[in-house]
Amino acid sequence: MNKYEKYRCLTDEQKAIRISIMDCIIDNGGSVNIELAKKWVKEHMESSEETIDATFKQFIDTNVMVVIDDEITFIFPVSGKPTNHRITLEDGRSFCAMCAIDSIGTSYTFKQPVTINSMCAATGKEIELKVDNGKVLYTNNPGMYIIHVDLLKNTDWANAC
Fold first, then answer.
1. What's the domain range around 35?
2. Are 131 and 107 in contact (CB under 8 A)?
3. Which of 75, 98, 101, 145 lies at a C-alpha separation of 20 to 30 Å from 159?
4. Which NCBIfam families match (predicted)?
5. Confidence band, pLDDT 50/70/90 cuts, at residue 161
6. DSSP strand E in the chain: where?
7. CATH of the domain at 134
8. Is the Cβ–Cβ distance between 75 and 18 less than 8 Å?
Protein backbone atom coordinates (compact mmCIF):
# COMPACT_ATOMS: atom_id res chain seq x y z
CA MET A 1 0.00 0.00 0.00
CA ASN A 2 1.50 3.33 -0.98
CA LYS A 3 1.10 6.50 1.06
CA TYR A 4 -1.84 7.79 -0.97
CA GLU A 5 -3.85 4.57 -0.65
CA LYS A 6 -3.69 4.93 3.15
CA TYR A 7 -6.00 7.90 2.86
CA ARG A 8 -8.17 6.82 -0.06
CA CYS A 9 -9.30 3.68 1.75
CA LEU A 10 -10.42 5.53 4.91
CA THR A 11 -14.14 5.66 5.61
CA ASP A 12 -15.77 9.06 6.02
CA GLU A 13 -15.83 8.46 9.79
CA GLN A 14 -12.11 7.62 9.85
CA LYS A 15 -11.36 10.75 7.81
CA ALA A 16 -13.31 12.83 10.33
CA ILE A 17 -11.42 11.18 13.22
CA ARG A 18 -8.14 12.03 11.48
CA ILE A 19 -9.14 15.70 11.18
CA SER A 20 -10.29 15.69 14.80
CA ILE A 21 -6.88 14.39 15.93
CA MET A 22 -5.22 17.17 13.92
CA ASP A 23 -7.56 19.72 15.53
CA CYS A 24 -6.57 18.38 18.95
CA ILE A 25 -2.86 18.86 18.19
CA ILE A 26 -3.46 22.34 16.74
CA ASP A 27 -5.70 23.53 19.57
CA ASN A 28 -3.31 22.14 22.21
CA GLY A 29 -0.27 23.72 20.55
CA GLY A 30 1.73 20.59 19.84
CA SER A 31 2.12 16.87 20.47
CA VAL A 32 -0.59 15.30 22.60
CA ASN A 33 -0.92 12.14 24.64
CA ILE A 34 -2.96 9.39 22.95
CA GLU A 35 -5.52 9.33 25.76
CA LEU A 36 -6.05 13.11 25.53
CA ALA A 37 -6.55 12.78 21.77
CA LYS A 38 -9.06 9.94 22.20
CA LYS A 39 -10.95 12.00 24.77
CA TRP A 40 -10.91 14.98 22.39
CA VAL A 41 -12.31 12.89 19.53
CA LYS A 42 -15.03 11.44 21.78
CA GLU A 43 -16.07 14.95 22.85
CA HIS A 44 -16.14 16.34 19.30
CA MET A 45 -17.63 13.41 17.39
CA GLU A 46 -20.41 10.88 17.76
CA SER A 47 -18.18 7.86 17.04
CA SER A 48 -18.24 4.88 19.36
CA GLU A 49 -15.31 4.22 21.66
CA GLU A 50 -14.66 0.96 19.78
CA THR A 51 -14.49 2.77 16.44
CA ILE A 52 -12.16 5.43 17.84
CA ASP A 53 -9.86 2.82 19.43
CA ALA A 54 -9.78 0.73 16.23
CA THR A 55 -9.09 3.82 14.11
CA PHE A 56 -6.23 4.96 16.36
CA LYS A 57 -4.73 1.47 16.16
CA GLN A 58 -5.07 1.43 12.36
CA PHE A 59 -3.49 4.89 12.08
CA ILE A 60 -0.52 3.79 14.20
CA ASP A 61 -0.12 0.41 12.45
CA THR A 62 -0.15 2.01 8.97
CA ASN A 63 2.03 5.01 9.93
CA VAL A 64 -0.77 7.48 9.23
CA MET A 65 -0.02 8.72 12.74
CA VAL A 66 3.41 8.63 14.41
CA VAL A 67 3.43 8.03 18.15
CA ILE A 68 6.60 8.38 20.21
CA ASP A 69 6.50 7.64 23.95
CA ASP A 70 2.68 7.69 23.96
CA GLU A 71 2.64 11.16 22.31
CA ILE A 72 1.14 11.77 18.88
CA THR A 73 3.96 13.66 17.19
CA PHE A 74 2.86 13.58 13.54
CA ILE A 75 -0.37 13.00 11.67
CA PHE A 76 0.06 14.04 8.06
CA PRO A 77 0.38 16.92 7.37
CA VAL A 78 0.39 18.24 10.97
CA SER A 79 3.54 18.11 13.07
CA GLY A 80 3.22 18.18 16.84
CA LYS A 81 6.87 19.25 16.95
CA PRO A 82 8.23 22.60 15.76
CA THR A 83 9.40 22.74 12.14
CA ASN A 84 10.42 25.52 9.76
CA HIS A 85 6.99 25.36 8.13
CA ARG A 86 4.40 27.40 10.07
CA ILE A 87 0.83 27.38 8.76
CA THR A 88 -1.88 29.86 9.67
CA LEU A 89 -5.38 28.84 8.72
CA GLU A 90 -7.93 31.43 7.65
CA ASP A 91 -9.79 30.66 10.90
CA GLY A 92 -6.77 32.02 12.82
CA ARG A 93 -5.35 28.76 14.18
CA SER A 94 -1.73 27.91 13.44
CA PHE A 95 0.51 24.85 13.53
CA CYS A 96 3.65 23.39 11.99
CA ALA A 97 3.55 21.18 8.91
CA MET A 98 5.85 18.22 8.45
CA CYS A 99 7.55 19.64 5.35
CA ALA A 100 7.26 22.42 2.77
CA ILE A 101 5.27 20.37 0.27
CA ASP A 102 2.86 19.25 3.00
CA SER A 103 2.43 22.93 3.90
CA ILE A 104 0.98 23.64 0.48
CA GLY A 105 -1.49 20.76 0.82
CA THR A 106 -2.89 22.01 4.13
CA SER A 107 -5.34 24.22 2.24
CA TYR A 108 -6.94 21.04 0.85
CA THR A 109 -6.83 19.23 4.19
CA PHE A 110 -8.56 22.00 6.13
CA LYS A 111 -10.68 23.27 3.20
CA GLN A 112 -9.68 26.90 3.70
CA PRO A 113 -7.03 29.39 2.61
CA VAL A 114 -3.70 29.17 4.43
CA THR A 115 -0.67 31.38 4.94
CA ILE A 116 2.64 29.54 4.99
CA ASN A 117 5.71 31.00 6.66
CA SER A 118 8.75 28.90 5.92
CA MET A 119 12.45 29.10 5.23
CA CYS A 120 14.40 28.04 2.17
CA ALA A 121 16.56 25.06 3.12
CA ALA A 122 19.26 26.15 0.64
CA THR A 123 19.48 29.91 1.25
CA GLY A 124 17.87 30.43 4.66
CA LYS A 125 15.64 33.14 3.19
CA GLU A 126 12.16 33.58 4.61
CA ILE A 127 9.33 32.40 2.41
CA GLU A 128 5.70 33.44 2.66
CA LEU A 129 2.93 31.91 0.57
CA LYS A 130 -0.81 32.33 0.61
CA VAL A 131 -2.53 29.29 -0.87
CA ASP A 132 -6.16 28.49 -1.51
CA ASN A 133 -7.45 25.37 -3.21
CA GLY A 134 -4.10 24.58 -4.84
CA LYS A 135 -3.50 28.08 -6.15
CA VAL A 136 -0.74 30.35 -4.90
CA LEU A 137 -2.43 33.69 -4.22
CA TYR A 138 0.71 35.46 -2.98
CA THR A 139 4.39 34.85 -2.48
CA ASN A 140 7.10 37.16 -1.22
CA ASN A 141 9.48 35.51 -3.69
CA PRO A 142 7.87 35.09 -7.14
CA GLY A 143 11.08 33.56 -8.55
CA MET A 144 11.14 30.60 -6.18
CA TYR A 145 11.16 26.97 -7.27
CA ILE A 146 9.82 24.00 -5.37
CA ILE A 147 11.75 20.74 -5.43
CA HIS A 148 9.85 17.60 -4.45
CA VAL A 149 11.34 14.28 -3.38
CA ASP A 150 9.30 11.18 -4.23
CA LEU A 151 8.63 9.41 -0.95
CA LEU A 152 6.73 6.46 -2.45
CA LYS A 153 9.76 4.25 -1.85
CA ASN A 154 9.41 4.75 1.93
CA THR A 155 6.86 2.84 3.98
CA ASP A 156 7.25 5.07 7.06
CA TRP A 157 7.24 8.29 5.06
CA ALA A 158 5.96 10.43 7.94
CA ASN A 159 9.30 9.93 9.65
CA ALA A 160 11.24 10.40 6.40
CA CYS A 161 9.90 13.83 5.48
1. 12-75
2. yes
3. 145
4. MerB_rel_SaoL
5. very low
6. 32-33, 65-68, 71-75, 78-79, 86-89, 94-97, 114-119, 126-132, 135-139
7. 3.15.10.60
8. yes
